[in-house]
Amino acid sequence: MPSQAHFSATFQTLKAVLAEYAPKLTVVHDEPGRYYLDAGYSAEWKKTICFGEVRICKNYVSFYLMAVYGNPALLDGISEDLKKRMQGKSCFNFKSIAAAQLKELKALTKRGFEAYKRMGWA
User: Fold this and answer.
1) Domain that holds residue 113
2) Tell me: the pLDDT tens digits for 54-100?
3) What predicted TM-score, i.e. pTM, was given to this entire model?
4) Among 39, 54, 55, 56, whose Cα sits 20 to 30 Å from the Cα of 8?
5) Which CATH number is 66's domain given?
């Protein structure tokens, strides 16, 4: 059975994708196995909006990108390979991540950040 140590490299790789945006967002959790960023406050929703999270789970590392939950058009044109990693509307699960998946996830995260900026949350 995989362990947290087994997924450490994948976690660090995915954490780096989100950490690029940390200077413009709020780091809520930065601990072994969990990294979580909040964006700005939404007057409409009356709460602070999550930007993303990386978490080591039992059988994989989860990458949550909340911008795609609120704006599913961001997913238009993603590869079948990345789509297969999706669970739900905003979560991608990885045991390991290939270079092409990482490149695509970085681009998707950037589009998500730009969408948050347009909404005034970043």
Assistant:
1) 8-118
2) 999 999 999 999 999 989 999 999 999 999 999 999 999 999 999 99
3) 0.92
4) 39
5) 3.90.1150
